Amino acid sequence: MADSGILNVVLYLPVLAIAAIVALPARREDLVRAVTLLAMLAQLALTALLYLRFDPAFDGLQFETRLPWIVSWGVYYQIGLDGYNLLLVLLTAFLGPLVVAGAFTAIQKDVKLFYAMICALQFAMMGTFVAQDLFLFYLFWETMLIPLFLIIGIWGGERRIYATLKFVLYTAFGSILMLAAVIYFVYSLETTTGITSFAFADLYHAQLPLNVQTILLAAFALSFAIKVPIVPLHTWLPDAHVEAPTAGSVILAGVLLKMGTYGFMKLAFPLFPDAARLLAPIFGTLAVVSIIYGACLALVQTDIKKVIAYSSISHLGYVMLGLVSLDLIGVQGAVMQMVSHGLVAGGLFLMVGMIYERCHTRELSAYGGLAKLLPLYSVFFGLLTLAAIGLPTTSGFTGEFLVLLGAFRAAWPQYVAGAGYPLFLSASAVAGVVLGALYMLWFAQRFLFGGAKAPHQPLVDLNLREKVILAAIMAAVFALGLFPDEPLHKTELAARQYRELVAAAPRGAPAARKSDATVAAAAEAAASPSASGEAR
Amino acid sequence: MNWVYVVVAMLPENFVLTGILALVACEAAGPLRRQTAMAISLLAVGLAAAAALWLAVSGYELAAFNGHYSVDPTSQIAKAIVLGLALPTVLVAGRETAERGFSVLLLSSLYGACLLLSSDSFLTLFLGLELMSLPVYALILVAFNRAESAEGALKYLVLGGTATATLPMGVSLLYGWSDSVALSAFAEAVRSTDTIAVAGVVLVLLAFLLKAAVVPFHTWAPDAYEGATMPVTAYMATIVKAAVLLAAVRLFGAAPVGRPLADVLAILPLASIVWGNLTAMRQTSFRRMIGYSSIAHAGYLFYAFLGEGRFQAVAFYVLAYGLMNLLAFASLPRTADGVPEDRLDELRGLFRRQPYAALAVGVAMLSLAGIPPLPGFVAKFLIFKNVFAAGFTIYAVLGLVGSYLGIYFYLRVIQYLFMSPESADEAAVRAPARLALGASLICLLVAVLIGVFPGWVIERL
User: Fold this and answer.
1) Hey, how many other C-beta atoms are within 10 angstroms of the C-beta on B170?
2) % of chain A residues with pLDDT over 90
3) Within a domain: residue B161?
4) What is the ipTM of this complex?
5) Domain coordinates of chain A in residue numbers?
6) By the CB < 8 Å criterion, does A125 face chain B?
7) Which range has the top average pLDDT, A192-201, A231-240, B98-107?
8) pTM of the model
9) Is residue B102 part of a domain?
10) Which of A21, A58, A431, B60 has the greatest number of beta carbons closer than 10 A?
11) Is residue B447 part of a domain?
């Protein structure tokens, strides 16, 4: 009980911070910054506490709160942690203080509103992850749009209005179709089963015909795919990233994009498993296309932010590939890749912000040989580059390696059975790794090495605040790279559940519905090719 | 029947009537002072709203005047919503309340709305509808120093007059068909396939579509909204619309809507949603934009008639929608001569000068756009949920996609408020009047409460 209270405090701390910020006088900008940072640090500390107390062996929601909210619709205020959202909640809480501290000097205009909006965004993102009720999830999901709309639109670059409207109109279009699907889903369930509930746990038991599942999955997937983003729905991302202020970019890359993949993992695929298996080749293809297309585009960018923006598309393709592989290792790799990308891309965007504050340009050609001008900066940048490539001992390696391993493990038996396409996809994804190394190393070479040049010389190397921010990120990157076992252990049960939910025999089959034991057995049978080597 | 019961049943109407009489008496005694007019109007409307709420809570039921008028909790809740929304309108009006019979006209119109919401026969329905509309034609002309206001009033009068003509026409057909002027005849006729009955239903419906400004009967709305002064626009956009829709719910009752009529009731509102949202994008006047937005919202509201639970859906929607419109109107800054600002351009960079006003207008816009967690979202959800539950999946999806079209122009206002550099003549824009600010705070507070506890409200409707 006390622990579920902590989760609520974690969720509502940013709201309290907003109240405090509003109450502070506008002149005391330093106080506004301090209050926000304190709130974020407190949130991180409490989230870390919850992480430590999280029981990996417990099947179900932990730290759960369930209160009636709109009773006649079957809507409950239900939040809780499970293996699905645990790491993402921790990631969100971890990036919170870094974003706030990273914006200390960059944001000088409308400081109060800025930090209030950062807090509002943090609240909405946390809420999206911890919500265990579809209505609540949608509420938080949509709420996120408003603060980010303002953050990009007010503190963004030159084309900020265009970028922010594009971002909101893209995502809102996906959301509106998802809303239609949510309502249709819940109320078709009501007519067939008599139960009106938005709780995820109840919705997983839905038994819808395949054609309905396919349409609903398409609507959910459209919304999530725009957020991820999956090629060809990605065009809003480079604009939003480039025009957003550093804080916006970090949150976008660090947390927001994971909302999409989290949505696929927690909702779209498990809710409509038959359709998910039917459409898996399409999602797999799009994932691989995203990996390669994103990497190719990253190769030719001249704007530093765009390089990282396109690399995000590529990296999130791995997450999708891991999720559709339906292999335990692949799914766990996808979870790791989500966290890893959040740290690495978030860190890179922070670093771009730091150099932008010093030189006021993001043109790659304006820079060169920063290793001589800013040695410490270059060390951190080099390390993050290596993490982005996925070098062993960094978190990027854990994620990408596990995803590819899982994808091959799932594809090989199918290849033996005569279906070569999954193997082709997995092999193509490996090409993405090579391309990834190519664009990141080439980028780092032009940026860090060669003849020393940069606008606005002489440059001052990292100050203490920046050092602390980057050191924290590097520590997390290496922790996940060197000791992936601990987080993987905590999320293993969820990964198994996800696989069982999606890979289970068709829901319509009456035999599979008798008891949980038979469901599990059916799941094992359906997934038998990959179930053999599950020992971890 | 004891006349005391009737007086009690008509308490809301009686309070409004007393207010009218008091205002007339004061005006006869000497020039009406602003404070007096304001106090009397507020008191009358406030007491009437409280009385309606009390009658609703105590479950008072009475049928009076030989089946022409009845009181039940549902009708009282409807009255309470309409009268409650009128309170901030009076506050927004501020110094206008003392001008040229403004208060008397406003209260007369409210009396009509109350009568309309308790009507049980077509006679009282017609009486109520006209008593509500006629003062509004005059209210638009209160600002007759502007040419547009005469144009707007005339358009409204002519088109409103058409509704006045089609309604009795339809009623007479229904009377010929069913030998009754009771409202229940309409619900019966909806189920019938008889040509006379269908024609009667269509003509009556036409009047309501016209009054609610649904495409293709919408053309009067933007002009009338733009021509009127800000409080009158607020009154038309919220209270008149709410009363018309709630009366339509009373008219339809619980009668299920059959196929040909359902298509009419889906396609016209759908056209309204799409057209209203698309045209609103191009407006440069705040009032015109709200005019087109109200056309779109009339579309959502008529969607509610496809499903069940109509009263709940419509009542919650008009409450959320009315509060948000009033919030926006109350928070708008004033120009140098004290009139609320109407040009969208002038709202540029408002946040830097008047943060509260900008935030309040922003919240109102987001809620009107149906973006959670604001009450507009729950209201829209409720309507579309009912449409889905009734099996009109395609129409529901199309309606939702139509509502997506509306997001852009609401966001554009927010873009002006927060993201644009300040407008050139910044000295021209002053803070809203203190009373209007009070009204906006009340609206904001109620809206936040509804947003946090929507279930509590919905279950009591």
Assistant:
1) 22
2) 64
3) no
4) 0.92
5) 2-529
6) no
7) A231-240
8) 0.92
9) no
10) A21
11) yes
